[in-house]
Amino acid sequence: MPFADLGLSPEVLRAVEEVGYVEPTPIQAQAIPYVLMGRDVLGSAQTGTGKTASFTLPMIDILTSGRARVRMPRSLILEPTRELATQVAENFDVYGKYHKLNQALLIGGESFAEQLKKLDRGVDVLIATPGRMLDLFERGKILLSDVKILVIDEADRMLDMGFIPDVERIVGLLPKIRQTLFFSATMPPEIRRLADAFLSNPKTISVAPPASPAAMVVQALAVVDHQDKRETLRHLLRTENVRNAVIFCNRKRDVDILHRSLAKHGFDASPLHGDMAQARRTETLDRFRNGEIAILVASDVAARGLDIEGLSHVFNFDVPIHAEDYVHRIGRTGRAGREGHAFTLASENDGRFVEAIEKLIGKPIPRVEILGIPTVGFEEKDARRGRRGEASESGRRGEASESRRRSSDRPRVSERKRSGERPAPETSAEIDSMPAKKPAAPQTEEKPVSHPTRHAPVRSGDRRSGDRRSRQPREQEGDQDAPVLAFGDHMPEFLKRPVKLPPLRKEEPEAA
Ligand code: AMP
Questions:
Q1: Cα(175)–Cα(171) distance, rounded to whole angstroms?
Q2: Residue 20 pLDDT level (bands cut at 50, 70, 90)
Q3: Least C-beta-crowded within 10 Å: which of 253, 332, 477, 505?
Q4: Candidates 21, 59, 94, 181: which one to mutate for ligand 1, based on the most atoms within 8 Å of Cβ?
Q5: Range list of H helices, 240-305
Q6: Whose CA is closest to atom 23 on ligand 1?
Q7: How open is the CA angle 374-380-384, to the nearest 5 degrees?
Q8: Mutational pocket test of ligand 1: of 22, 307, 311, the residue with most ligand atoms within 8 Å of the beta carbon
């Protein structure tokens, strides 16, 4: 179906043609006619499907008639992150170039004065993150009684980030008679409940199974010792044909640590996470888009939905805790019909997370082994726990970091000490003082590796000869619930008392 059949105005069609789109994507073809009719829409679609244009294009035409009043926006688009909000604003600039609509972007980290100046001129489209939106409302700087169209984008991400109470408050401030467009990549029960509450007789549209990665992404999974992950990543960056890459970490702290480690090893990398000042985030993204920076080390929140043309590689330095994030992350590459590559680095206690991802995408991620770096297997205990699937999401987060901490603090440290290596540094200061790692030991005959990276695929759970874990007796693998103080082979009973570990600090969800 051509764009011309969707009912859009000649001006919007001209702008679309100038961007170079030949025909609408499935979500655009299905949603645009209903949005133009004034219907509510419940869209199950992830980024990369063209969903932004599916609401911006018809909104431009709808908002053409009528005028905005001072501090009374006529439409409101809620986005979970500043980057997504900025991208939506850019869409309005591009597609609305033949219209005279005013828009304002209300995001944290930017000056209030500038944003207020725009509101004073009257805005047709207000694009905001929930926190900043409420902030301004509470200061009495904005009135929401004239909002005729509400868009809630990436609702599942809002849920993950704890924004749903804010979203509910904002929706409560809007007129009851309005058009609502609600998009989410996944539809867990909590999101369905919200959709039922916010939407009235919506047209439900679902494009591509929410969990299917882009067909053009070549996926690979390397399972290595936790402490070999940095070396594995460097090896891949050097040997793969990486033009530009986003490397994902699960935690903001790790983004900084990994970035510094890569910089120390001479890679042209920059960090991107929610704790950075907005101006720096914007500048970093612009430089990455322009090709001035080749590697971005990012957190999920900061990089969600980023649309970077021709991204050649995505690396998951950490296996994502939420399986859906895997799909979102790797979807940054393999766009617009180009091939992309997604490498995931897992360590022995990531078994249950990998299992969840493979269940979600419906197939195993092909294993690869890396030249000079031993492949390890997943801990059985870990996989068993994952199969039970009882842990809550927040619980899983805590468990993940705890099991990681246990595995790196206990058997591995002593193992490294025996072999004269240092443990992996935990802080940036440690990275700076870290000596360059010794080159990997030469391959033994037993290890069938023929090429630096992609070579003998390894089956899940394989324990190769290079697997240091498999050579250890069970007692040394830290399998007991609590560590005991060492006393050779003859430990007196009184010394076997469990040592109480201090409670782990819970990682705060990243703010937009
Ligand atoms: P989105 O899902 O909105 O993040 O869009 C993903 C990418 O698809 C963006 O780079 C858009 O510019 C692009 N895009 C949107 N609509 C079309 C279309 N009809 N044809 C080709 N590319 C499109």
A1: 8
A2: confident
A3: 505
A4: 21
A5: 252-264, 278-289, 300-303
A6: 50
A7: 145
A8: 307
- E strands of 307-425, at which residues? 313-316, 340-346
Q: Whose CA is nearest to atom 6 of ligand 1?
A: 48
Q: Compute the half-sphere exposure of residue 186: CA atoms within 13 Å on the CB side of its CA.
A: 18
Does ligand 1 come within 6 angstroms of the Cβ of 407? no
Residue 317 burial by Cβ neighbours in a 10 Å radius (0-12, 13-18, 19+): buried
| CB 481 within 8 Å of CB 498 | yes
| pLDDT for the residue 496 | 36
The token duo for 448 is 């069938």
Residue 282: phi and psi, rounded to 5, are -65, -45
Residue 53 Cβ inside 6 Å of ligand 1? The answer reads yes
Which pLDDT tens digit goes with each residue over 27-60?
999 999 999 999 999 999 877 788 999 999 999 9
pLDDT at 463: 34
Q: Is the CB of 144 under 6 A from ligand 1?
A: no
For 141-163, how does the pLDDT look when each residue is reduced to its tens digit (9 = 90+)?
999 999 999 999 999 889 888 89
**CA 185 – CA 356 distance, rounded (Å):** 17
The string of pLDDT tens digits covering residues 381-421 is: 544 443 333 333 333 333 333 333 333 332 232 233 333 33
- The rounded Å distance from CA 391 to ligand 1 centre is 37
Residue 412, SS3?
A: helix
Q: Report the alpha-carbon distance of residue 247 to residue 299 in Å, rounded.
A: 8
Could you give the maximum distance between any two Cα atoms of the chain, in Å?
A: 86
For the CA of 24, the nearest atom of ligand 1: 19
User: 252 with 298: CB under 8 angstroms?
Assistant: no
**Predicted model pTM:** 0.57
